[in-house]
Amino acid sequence: MKGPIKSVLAEELQNSIRMKNEYKNALEKMPKGCLRKRNIKGHDYYYVVKRENGKIVEEYKGKLSKGQIAEIENNVQLRAKYRELLSQANKQIKFLKGCLRGKEPV
Fold first, then answer.
1. Distance between CA atoms of residues 13 and 20, nearest Å
2. Burial category of 95 from C-beta neighbours within 10 Å (exposed 0-12, middle 13-18, buried 19 and up)
3. How many CB atoms lie under 10 A from the CB of residue 71?
4. Is 106 a domain residue?
5. Per-residue pLDDT tens for 13-24?
6. In total, how many domains does the chain have?
7. Residue 5 — φ and ψ, nearest 5°?
8. What CA–CA distance (Å, rounded) separates 22 from 19?
9. Which of 26, 40, 53, 60 has a CA between 20 and 30 Å from the CA of residue 32?
10. Which domain holds residue 96?
11. Which helix (H) or strand (E) holds 64?
């Protein structure tokens, strides 16, 4: 028989699993990579650097406006935020499963 604390922990575990799945889906939809600027003969050219199949790939973007640069940098920051939230959700799920385990299977 579950007590009130275990039922609250079980509910929190379900919420954490749901949030983990939402973070994963959000990360899959976001573009990968970070922005790199190269100055060639006095002109700035931009590349998106990302990892594909274990290799570092630079995708040429050309000359970008300030708005485009801000959008890409915003995506990079947002992606980092989601990765941090996903990590926290994984730690919380592990902790809650350990709390609920006791003598009963989860």
1. 10
2. middle
3. 13
4. no
5. 999 999 999 999
6. 1
7. -70, -45
8. 5
9. 40
10. 4-101
11. none
